């Protein structure tokens, strides 16, 4: 018996010693990687879903497909201006017709020539209801796709479609090889026109690409690219430190100080198009009352929250963010800025004191952080707020059905166009789909429709601004922050630019 | 020899109850490890009861300008967490939650377990079916059973209590049944039956008091498991919901800050470790003291 106790105590001490030793273990190395082979390994927290731009729409898959396939148009990663890529030029003879001239002498990785037929084939596949492409909505306004000649394709819409070029530069509208898609599964063995060709996809482990020597421009400088799956972000950071991985993106704000303290690692931060918000379920009481939403809007101090993000967030209460088409500075001042006394007063006057609210939060770091801070702030103005957490999948299901009172969500705007933010998220058409707040306002709907159905960009911008102001005033959302796009990479990596939508191309990247 | 007397007194109807307990306590106090455990539990109880008097800040009060202060910071001697909440305050209120949840879970588990154990041990006809149900519950790994129950009921501390108490029932039922079976065969029970005492009277007045020793030991040990399981479930996000200062949830919250604020996880971690250790050694001590056979061997 005595022996047992000694053993017990000893193991107890051992646990403490191991634990303490584990905590104080100093980082070692950092510059282990000194080779200058033109290879790069990128780590992401989850595996790609697939490698076909038609059949996927998650950001991890997009990062990989963006290197293999190309779109007709592309946004300049710095200026966000739309430029032709596979297209040569375009004309709009009338508001409903887009005549696009394509570049000549481009072939897919499998030797299939790139031409108007390939574009027609790809777009028809995206629009095909049987294929059920997740981003079919991008091209939904296109009515017919005609091949005018080998290198000219004509897109006709029923109504003018303002965000056409944004849609055509979306990674999910990339052109695929018709031969490869007909004969095989491009979701497993992708074939595009891009600077990198597909080598291997070991599910759950990595995707490997190599340089396309026959690329239509100068070939890329990197010989080999690996997309590695590392589920734990802290593990990925350790791998960056030891040189096993050279590049990470979407850095977690809590880990930023650690990443920035690493030797030989550079951190890139720039303003992005993502918006995160506190959304109300407009079909529930008292969330359908403007005074109540206003009181909460006055009571939430987003600035205090953004300060906790180690610089990875922008405080701006406009729904359309500064990097999104349709933003006007006026909007950032038209909001219900933090005013605790006013919030308390409104709560008091309208008899909302002690109102109990369930604040639903997805079980993800950023949303949990918002939930804890907002809960504390709303408790201070006299509301009784309980947090309920849910796993991501269940959460999306629950919120889509409208079984919540108040929650946090975000929208990564990959077209960087305001119409693509307001239409899916707040237009009546999308209640039960992506309009989680179930916002229903005819006047607002009309403004959003006008912004979509015009090709006059100035007019669109004006309509988007009006719609933005209306939504800010109605407060179905309280904007928490506008996101930053981030990347951390080894100092030997050169030429990497992450654009405001969070996507990046490895075409111009090299290692020294 | 005193042990022998205690043994005899125990087996017959104990006339001098007090002496028996005094002796037990004396034997427990001889066990240094158990005394250490008792002191820790005592401190924890004091902290839990007088929590509001012992802290300068509420456990929910955020100060976003003073986040992640380390141990020994001015005004916050255990530092603050990532929302600038006082770690000491959260630790003390966490002790309250752990003890209440532990007591409630073990209490409910004991009621269910004792009832099933008594019925199953006393009435032979019901024994088979009750024990098969208990076996069924035993077949599940405990934490899995708790997770299953929580998945059905939803995440909250109340549901954690329910889950852990259900999980405590089979262990308790089996122990009580074993004691009942051995006590039932004693002559004095036969004597009671022959004079026509009712089953209820026999069970509650004569059998149950003679099963208390293993029940006390089981309950003490079970407290440790219950506290640990509450922490584990909260760590997994199935128990206490933020911002509740539950220890397991605090460890989970601190995970992301192991590099710049390790105290956020280490402090509640040590608290859980000490508490579980304390209940275990006290349980051990009690078992040694209450089990006369063990005592004779020593």
TrEMBL record, chain A:
One cellular-component annotation, GO: ATP-binding cassette (ABC) transporter complex
Domain Solute-binding protein family, residue spans: 81-432
UniProt keyword terms in alphabetical order: Signal, Transport
Transmembrane segments: none
GO MF entries: peptide transmembrane transporter activity
Keyword Transmembrane appears in the UniProt entry: no
GO BP, sorted A to Z: peptide transport
Record carries keyword Signal: yes
Pfam families: SBP_bac_5
Family under the similarity heading: Belongs to the bacterial solute-binding protein 5 family.
PANTHER family: OLIGOPEPTIDE-BINDING PROTEIN APPA, PERIPLASMIC BINDING COMPONENT OF ABC TRANSPORTER
Protein name (database record): Glutathione ABC transporter substrate-binding protein
Source organism of this protein record: Virgibacillus profundi
UniProtKB/TrEMBL annotation, chain B:
KW Cytoplasm (keyword) present: no
Pfam families in the record: BPD_transp_1, OppC_N
Start and end residues of each ABC transmembrane type-1 domain: 95-283
InterPro entries in UniProt: BP-dependent_transpt_permease, MetI-like, MetI-like_sf, OppC_N
GO process annotations (BP): transmembrane transport
Main location: membrane
Family: Belongs to the binding-protein-dependent transport system permease family.
Membrane topology reported for the UniProt record: Multi-pass membrane protein
Keyword Transmembrane included in the entry's annotation: yes
Annotated TM spans: 33-55, 97-121, 133-151, 157-176, 215-238, 266-286
Subcellular location: Cell membrane
Keywords: Cell membrane, Membrane, Transmembrane, Transmembrane helix, Transport
Gene Ontology cellular component terms for the protein in this record: plasma membrane
Source organism superkingdom: Bacteria
Protein name: Diguanylate cyclase
């Amino acid at each position: 018996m005595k022996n047992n106790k000694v053993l017990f105590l000893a193991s107890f001490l051992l646990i403490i010693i191991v634990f303490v030793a584990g905590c104080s273990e100093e980082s070692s190395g950092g510059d282990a990687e000194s080779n200058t082979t033109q290879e790069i390994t990128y780590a992401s927290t989850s595996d790609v879903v697939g490698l076909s731009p038609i059949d996927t729409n998650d950001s991890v898959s997009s990062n990989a497909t963006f290197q293999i396939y190309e779109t007709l148009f592309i946004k300049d990663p710095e200026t966000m201006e739309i430029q032709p890529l596979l297209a040569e030029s375009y004309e709009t003879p009338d508001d409903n017709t887009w005549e696009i001239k394509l570049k000549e002498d481009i072939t897919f990785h499998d030797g299939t020539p790139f031409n108007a037929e390939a574009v027609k084939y790809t777009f028809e596949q995206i629009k095909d209801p049987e294929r059920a492409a997740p981003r079919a909505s991008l091209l939904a306004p296109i009515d017919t796709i005609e091949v005018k000649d080998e290198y000219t394709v004509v897109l006709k819409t029923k109504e003018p479609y303002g965000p056409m070029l944004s849609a055509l530069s979306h990674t999910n509208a990339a052109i695929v090889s018709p031969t490869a898609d007909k004969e095989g599964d491009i979701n497993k063995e992708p074939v595009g026109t891009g600077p990198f060709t597909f080598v291997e996809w070991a599910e759950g482990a990595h995707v490997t690409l190599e340089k396309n020597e026959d690329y239509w421009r100068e070939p890329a400088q990197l010989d080999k690219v690996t997309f590695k799956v590392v589920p734990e972000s802290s593990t990925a950071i350790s791998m960056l430190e030891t040189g096993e991985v050279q590049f990470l993106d979407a850095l977690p704000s809590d880990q930023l100080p650690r990443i920035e303290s690493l030797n030989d690692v550079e951190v890139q931060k720039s303003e992005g198009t993502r918006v995160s918000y506190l959304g109300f379920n407009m079909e529930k009481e008292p969330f359908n009352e403007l005074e109540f939403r206003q009181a909460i809007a006055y009571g939430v101090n987003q600035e205090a929250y953004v300060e906790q993000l180690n610089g990875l967030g922008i405080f701006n209460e406009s729904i359309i963010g500064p990097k999104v088409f349709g933003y006007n500075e006026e909007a950032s001042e038209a909001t219900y800025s933090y005013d605790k006394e006013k919030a308390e007063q409104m709560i008091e006057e309208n008899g909302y004191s002690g109102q109990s609210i369930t604040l639903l939060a997805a079980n993800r770091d950023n949303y949990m952080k918002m939930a804890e801070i907002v809960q504390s702030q709303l408790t201070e103005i006299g509301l009784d707020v309980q947090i309920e957490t849910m796993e991501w999948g269940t959460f999306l299901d629950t919120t889509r059905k409208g079984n919540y009172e108040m929650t946090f969500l975000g929208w990564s705007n990959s077209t960087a166009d305001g119409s693509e933010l307001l239409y899916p998220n707040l237009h009546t058409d999308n209640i039960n789909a992506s309009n989680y707040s179930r916002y229903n306002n005819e006047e607002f709907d009309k403004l959003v429709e006008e912004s979509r159905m015009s090709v006059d960009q100035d007019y669109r911008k004006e309509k988007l601004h009006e719609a933005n102001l209306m939504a800010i005033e109605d407060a179905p959302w309280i904007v928490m922050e506008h996101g930053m796009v981030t990347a951390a990479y080894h100092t030997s990596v050169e030429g990497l630019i992450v654009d405001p939508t969070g996507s990046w191309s490895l075409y111009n990247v090299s290692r020294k | 020899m005193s042990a022998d007397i205690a043994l005899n007194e125990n087996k017959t109807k104990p006339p001098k109850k007090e002496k028996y307990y005094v002796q037990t306590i004396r034997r427990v106090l001889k066990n240094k490890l158990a005394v250490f455990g008792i002191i820790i539990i005592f401190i924890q109880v004091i902290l839990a009861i007088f929590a509001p008097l012992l802290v300068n800040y509420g456990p929910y009060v955020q100060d976003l300008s003073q986040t992640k202060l380390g141990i020994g910071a001015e005004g916050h001697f255990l530092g603050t967490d990532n929302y600038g909440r006082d770690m000491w305050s959260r630790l003390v209120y966490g002790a309250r939650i752990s003890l209440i949840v532990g007591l409630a879970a073990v209490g409910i588990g004991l009621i269910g377990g004792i009832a099933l154990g008594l019925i199953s041990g006393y009435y032979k006809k019901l024994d088979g079916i009750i024990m098969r149900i208990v076996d069924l519950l035993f077949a599940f790994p405990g934490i899995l059973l708790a997770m299953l129950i929580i998945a059905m009921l939803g995440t909250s501390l109340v549901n954690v209590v329910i889950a852990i108490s259900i999980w405590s029932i089979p262990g308790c039922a089996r122990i009580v049944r074993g004691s009942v079976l051995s006590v039932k065969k004693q002559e004095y029970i036969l004597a009671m039956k022959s004079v026509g005492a009712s089953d209820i009277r026999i069970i509650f007045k004569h059998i149950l008091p003679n099963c208390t020793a293993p029940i006390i030991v089981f309950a003490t040990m079970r407290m440790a498991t219950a506290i640990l399981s509450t922490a584990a479930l909260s760590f997994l996000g199935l128990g206490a919901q933020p911002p509740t200062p539950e220890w397991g949830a605090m460890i989970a919250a601190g995970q992301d800050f192991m590099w710049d604020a390790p105290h956020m996880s280490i402090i509640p971690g040590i608290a859980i470790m000490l508490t579980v250790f304390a209940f275990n050694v006290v349980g051990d001590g009690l078992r040694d003291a209450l089990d006369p056979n063990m005592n004779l061997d020593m």
